[in-house]
Structures are given as C-alpha cells and as structure tokens.
C-alpha cells in the first residue's frame, strides 16, 4: 500500500532571501538532524545572471533501524538524491528527493517548495508532500514501513525548528537582511554592451534519466521546454499550520496530512458543498484517521444532510409548542474546558406523552436542531476562548426516571435518535455526565449501550444518588457558579421542567403516521433506484421554448449515465406512479421508465445532450436551454464497465469496480426545476426566480450558446 503525506502550508514571517540563507546552512551536514551524516554535490548549474541555481546532492543517512535489519539488508547507510531548483527572480525553491538505495524495492519521492506568501511579500511559505511505496524488503515490509514513517514524521516536526535555529544563529552574527536578486547592472541600460546569451529559464528539476545518461547540467536545462509548476502559497483552498493549531488543535503531521488530503478530495468531487474543516476532522477522528473509512461515512452524511436540508433546519424549522413546553432540555453556559453545556432532565420528561403527541420524526428533528445549535456554539466558543472547541458536554439528570420511561415506542424512538446522531455527528460529545442514576438505569443502559460507539461510551461518567457532589464529581467539570439550582447550585437554569403532556394533545396513530411522512418529505430532493436495464426517467413538459431546465443530483451508489431526450409526443404514464407537471412526484426511492420499448431514437425521440458518465460520490449540477416545446425526459441509466479494447477479458479495475455495485443497482438523489428564460442569467447562482429553492444549493455553471445547455460535474 502506498503511504502518502501532504503538509499544511507553514508560514515563516521572514523574507524569502533570509529563509534561503538559513536553509543553505543545513549543508553539507546538519547537527540538528543526527541521521543526516553527510552530503556531496554531484551536479550544479548557475545561470550567467545568477538568477537560476540548480544543485544536485547525494545525501548519506544513518537510519535508526534494528541492527539485525541492517545486517540482513547488507547496508549501514541509506543514500538519497536531492535536487534543488532555486529561482531568485521568481523567489521560489523547489526540492525533489528520491531514494537511491534499494530503489528497486522501495520507492520514496518527496517534493518541497518555498514560495513567497501571496498576501505578504516579506513572508515565506513552505509546503511538503511525499509518498512511500514498499514493493518488497526481505519479508520485513511492515517493519520497514513503520520505521520509515516514524523517521519521516520526526523530521517533519524538526523542519521548522531547524530553519528558526539558523535564523537565530544568523541574527547573532548580525545578519538580519539579505537583499533580493536584481539583474546585473551592465544589462539594465539598453546602451550597455552585454554578451548575448540565451533567455534564462526558470528553475527546473534535473531528470533522473538524463543524469544517468551523462548529460551536462546546461544540456539538461536547455532541453526543458517548460518551467516547473509553481506551488501556491496560502490561497483560500489551502490550510496553513497556524490556522490548524488555532482552530483545529494540535495534530500530528500524519493527522494534518489526512485532513488535507480528504479536504482536497472533497474539493474535487463536491465543489460548492465542502463541509467545514472542523466537521471533516470529526469524521477522521471517528475512524482513527483512516481516510477511506472516514470518506465513506462523511459522504453518506453529506447526502443525508442534503436530502433532509439539515443545513437549514435552524432557520426554517420552528419546534412545535409542545416541545418548547414539555421537552426538559436546553443549553446552559459552558463547562471548565469552554465546551457548550447542554442540560437534559430526562427523569422529568414524559417521553411517552411526547411520542404520542408529536411522533418519532418530530422528536428526531428537534434533536437534530439541538446538534446543529451545538455545532454553532462550538464555533462561537472557539473564538471566545481562543482555543479549538469542537465538542460539547451533556449533563443528564435522571432524578425521576422509572419504568414508564421504558415504554417500548419511547425506547424505539431513543434508539433511532442515537443511531442518526452517531452516524452524522461523530466526535461532537466531549463528555456525558449522568447524575442521580436510579436502580432502573441499568435496564435502560443495557438497551441503549450496544448502539453507542466505543469511543463515545468512554466519555460517559455515571453518578448514583448524590455521588456527584463529592470528590471527582460535578465540581471537577463545571464551575460552581453555573451549577444548576435543581442540582444544589446557585445558578438559575432556564431549562423547562418537563412534566406530563396532557392527553388532549395526543394524536391518533394515523395522524402521527401522516405527520411523520410530511416531515421527511419536505425535501426538494427525490431518491431513485437505477438498475441494469431499468433506468430512472423524469418527464418535463415545456410549453414555452427557451425555458431553462435545471438539475442537481448526487450519485449515492454506483456509476450512472445521465441523458436528456426530447419528444414531440408524450410517453405513456407509468401505472404505479403519477406524473406531475415537472417531475415524478413519488417521494420514495422509486424507479420509473417512460420511454416505450418500441420507440426508436431519431424517429420518436431525440437526444439533446451528450451522455454524461457520473461516478459514485459525484455531485452534478447543470442546465439546458430548451429549443422547442414538447416533452423532455431526464434519464439516469446504469453505467456498465467497458471491457478492455484489445481483449475480450475485462480489466482488473473494471472487475473490482463492478463488485462495488451489488446487484447491479445504483442510487441517485435529484432535484429538477424549470425556469423561464427571463429569470435565468446563465449561472445557477444568479437564478432570480422568486420561487426557486435550487439557487441556494447549486454551484455555478456556464451556458453554451452553441448547444443551448450547460452541465458541470464536481469531479
């Protein structure tokens, strides 16, 4: 397995030239890096105006590895080749390094860059990326990987310290300024006589193959037709180390790398829909920084949030009055660590009455709004306390808990809530204080504990009776001044006292069932299943030409092909689903086919857009400006993996990909809308239709005057 590393942007608040002077002091050897024994210059090139300096060194490293492993490998030292390309004109340094020793067994590549900060030319940015691929190593592959990762991460931590050490050394020597490069004086005036020379190329990396073939440095430079790609400093889409420490906390180099890599993947596949860095980090922590596992649950959560419009729940949903009066929970200041504190008087709550009056879905939605408010409060407290706060503390008072709280539908609702919260709000609970647990509590705990993640369960502190008042109790976690009055404190707590819900507010099972459906179908998105040989199709009738059909869909599972067709006559409506004016109105994960099997493409209907292949996890937004009135059909079709062109056997990648799509089934979540041309301005972010909810959710797209359409995939 290839191990990868990507650093955040590290900022030195010193000019580029001063940083370069400090950096050069690391050679030929550096006492601050014991493993760096020596280095020899094997190739060097300087341009005539000294703007370009390319140097190649062979570095000798004494790896801290078991003596037995070194003996088996037959080496005492490991050699690396490092190529530095300095461009004083552009003020950039690009560093490429690779291993020379065991290069047929282990492949190590590293790229580093020093560049000028984009917002302050007197600051310098540093970025670093690397990859490790161990093909084979005498049966010790796992051991070598661990040693290599340990050595590399320890050197990453020292990197900034070393530069700062040499900066301080230079300051003691009286060196606090290094002038910038300027063109030679003789060449500044047009009247001056200068020796003709070739244009100076920017710094490049010396190809390994060219070095082996014995080309000189000048020949290598002259054969290059393009400069190295510069690495940006700290643009908005990159994280710098100071930001991570201030807002996200102390992370190890590998944890930083996981965060940056997952964030980059989201930027490529979910443009315009990137969750906040704190949220991404929570999912990584929930899966011990395993990127693949964290990405899977995060994508599932993002789809869930979008489908149920959870991002807007605080602004668009008002809790019923019954909840405001009888739900005995609320926010109450913060704990000693600055975490928001939520107080829940579960023992005083009539869970049966709330479920009978509101239903399971209303309770779930209310809990979601509490979690969303918790995320908002964490952000506020991070700013107030000046340190990262990403979770909250929950204080649960069980005084009054009895067997009526174990009412089966109530327990079922509780388990459902725990399941949803665990899946979509991982690592948000910093601590759970359970106070005054009665004898019936072990029964409830036995029911709910299997549904709680092990990491979450470790954060539970349970106190029976008045134990919370003694040593190791409440005062260890909450300041005395804010302990609620009902727990013997002096602070008035505005959390509702709960009580029995009047039976006059109870609703029938039929009313509750209809209400539950209404709550979760108030989403503008619809779900559909796509099978092999059974596409899902949506009919849109257009009366006025030049109307704009817009779409926004996520591929939740499998790969699909998206098509748009036009027909002058309406297809026969499906038997099990009714057709609305603009789309199929069935809210479930349905599958509807509209194009009759006897229809022929080109005769009965035509294709108005090129087929668009969409991969699992992609978000797609687009629009099509209609040319003719009639009936337009949006189609999502199962995408079959093509076999290799030169053989009848499928490729390995195709087989593996097909195994991921069980039973040849795909899932999409989509939204479509028709907008008049006068309300459309060629961009999904500039839709001015007063009834359009899509404009808040979609990313920008561009429209093509030739095809009268636009589509954009967030790849």
UniProtKB/TrEMBL annotation:
It comes from the Eukaryota. PANTHER family: SEC14 RELATED PROTEIN (PTHR23324), SEC14-LIKE PROTEIN 1 (PTHR23324:SF51). InterPro entries: CRAL-TRIO_dom (IPR001251), CRAL-TRIO_dom_sf (IPR036865), CRAL/TRIO_N_dom (IPR011074), CRAL/TRIO_N_dom_sf (IPR036273), GOLD_dom (IPR009038), GOLD_dom_sf (IPR036598), PRELI/MSF1_dom (IPR006797), SEC14/CRAL-TRIO_domain (IPR051064). Residues 219-231 have a biased composition (Polar residues). Residues 214-237 are annotated as: Disordered. It is found in: Cytoplasm; Golgi apparatus. May play a role in innate immunity by inhibiting the antiviral RIG-I signaling pathway. In this pathway, functions as a negative regulator of RIGI, the cytoplasmic sensor of viral nucleic acids. Prevents the interaction of RIGI with MAVS/IPS1, an important step in signal propagation. May also regulate the SLC18A3 and SLC5A7 cholinergic transporters. PROSITE patterns: CRAL_TRIO, GOLD, PRELI_MSF1. It comes from Lonchura striata (white-rumped munia). The keyword Membrane does not apply. Residues 3-175 form the PRELI/MSF1 domain. GO terms for biological process: innate immune response; negative regulation of RIG-I signaling pathway. Interacts with RIGI (via tandem CARD domain); the interaction is direct. Interacts (via GOLD domain) with SLC18A3; the interaction is direct. Interacts with SLC5A7 (via GOLD domain); the interaction is direct. The gene is SEC14L1. Residues 319-495 form the CRAL-TRIO domain. Residues 521-674 form the GOLD domain. Keywords: Cytoplasm, Golgi apparatus, Immunity, Innate immunity, Phosphoprotein, Signal transduction inhibitor. This is SEC14-like protein 1. One of its GO terms (molecular function) is RIG-I binding. GO terms for cellular component: cytosol; Golgi apparatus.
């Amino acid at each position: 397995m290839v191990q990868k590393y990507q650093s955040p942007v590290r900022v030195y608040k010193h000019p580029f030239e001063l940083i370069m002077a400090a950096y050069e002091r690391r050679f030929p050897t550096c006492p601050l890096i014991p493993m760096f024994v020596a280095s020899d210059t094997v190739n060097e090139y300087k341009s005539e105006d000294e703007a370009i300096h390319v140097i190649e060194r062979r570095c000798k490293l004494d790896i801290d590895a078991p003596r037995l492993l070194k003996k088996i490998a037959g080496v005492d030292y490991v050699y690396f080749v490092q190529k530095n390309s300095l461009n004083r004109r552009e003020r950039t340094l690009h560093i490429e390094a690779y291993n020379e020793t065991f290069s047929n067994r282990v492949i190590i590549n590293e790229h580093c860059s020093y560049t000028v900060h984009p917002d302050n030319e007197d600051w310098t940015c540093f970025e670093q990326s690397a990859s490790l691929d161990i093909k084979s190593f005498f049966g010790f592959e796992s051991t070598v990987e661990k040693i290599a990762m340990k050595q590399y991460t320890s050197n990453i931590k020292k990197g900034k310290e070393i530069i700062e050490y040499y900066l301080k050394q230079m300051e003691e020597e009286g060196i606090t300024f290094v002038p910038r490069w300027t063109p030679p004086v003789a060449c500044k005036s047009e009247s001056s006589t200068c020796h003709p020379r070739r244009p100076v190329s920017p710094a490049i990396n010396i190809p390994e193959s060219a070095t082996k073939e014995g080309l000189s440095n000048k020949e290598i430079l002259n054969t290059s037709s393009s400069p190295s790609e510069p690495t940006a400093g700290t643009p908005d889409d990159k994280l710098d180390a100071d930001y991570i420490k201030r807002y996200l906390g102390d992370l190890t180099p590998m944890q930083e790398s996981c965060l940056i890599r997952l964030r980059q993947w989201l930027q490529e596949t979910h443009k315009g829909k990137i969750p906040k860095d704190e949220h991404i980090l929570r999912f990584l922590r929930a899966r011990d920084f395993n990127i693949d596992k964290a990405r899977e649950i995060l994508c599932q959560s993002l789809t869930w949030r979008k489908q149920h419009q959870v991002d807007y729940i605080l602004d668009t949903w008002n809790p019923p009055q019954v909840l405001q009066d009888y739900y005995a929970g609320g926010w109450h200041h913060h704990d000693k660590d600055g975490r928001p504190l939520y107080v829940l008087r579960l023992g005083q709550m009539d869970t049966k009455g709330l479920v009978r009056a509101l239903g399971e879905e209303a309770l779930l939605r209310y809990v979601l709004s509490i979690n969303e408010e918790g995320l908002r409060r964490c952000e506020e407290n991070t700013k107030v306390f000046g340190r990262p706060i990403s979770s909250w503390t929950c204080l649960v008072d069980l005084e009054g808990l009895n067997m009526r709280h174990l009412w089966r539908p109530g327990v079922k609702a509780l388990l459902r809530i725990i399941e949803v919260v665990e899946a979509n709000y991982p690592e948000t609970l910093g601590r759970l204080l359970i106070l005054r647990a009665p004898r019936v509590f072990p029964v409830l705990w036995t029911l709910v504990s299997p549904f709680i993640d092990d990491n979450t369960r470790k954060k539970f502190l349970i106190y029976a009776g008045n134990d919370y008042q003694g040593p190791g109790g409440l005062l260890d976690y909450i300041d005395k001044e804010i302990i609620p009055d009902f727990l013997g404190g002096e602070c008035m707590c505005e959390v509702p006292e709960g009580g029995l819900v009047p039976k006059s507010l109870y609703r029938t099972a039929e009313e509750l069932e209809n209400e539950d459906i209404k709550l979760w179908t108030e989403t503008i998105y619809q779900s559909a299943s796509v099978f092999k040989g059974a596409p899902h199709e949506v009919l849109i009738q257009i009366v006025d030409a030049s109307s704009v059909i817009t779409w926004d869909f996520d591929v939740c599972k499998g790969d699909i092909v998206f098509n748009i067709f036009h027909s002058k006559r309406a297809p026969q409506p499906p038997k099990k689903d009714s057709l609305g004016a603009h789309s199929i109105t069935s809210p479930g994960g349905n599958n509807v086919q509209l194009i009759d099997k006897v229809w022929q493409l080109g005769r009965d209907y035509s294709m108005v857009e090129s087929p668009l292949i969409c991969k699992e996890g992609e978000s797609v937004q687009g629009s099509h400006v209609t040319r003719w009135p009639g009936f337009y059909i949006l189609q999502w079709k199962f995408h079959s993996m093509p076999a290799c062109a030169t053989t009848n056997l499928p490729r390995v990648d195709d087989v593996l990909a097909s195994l991921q799509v069980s039973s040849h089934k795909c899932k999409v979540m989509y939204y479509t809308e028709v907008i008049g041309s006068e309300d459309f301005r060629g961009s999904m972010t500039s839709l001015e239709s007063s009834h359009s909810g899509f404009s808040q959710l979609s990313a920008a797209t561009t429209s093509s005057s030739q095809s009268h359409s636009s589509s954009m995939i967030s790849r």
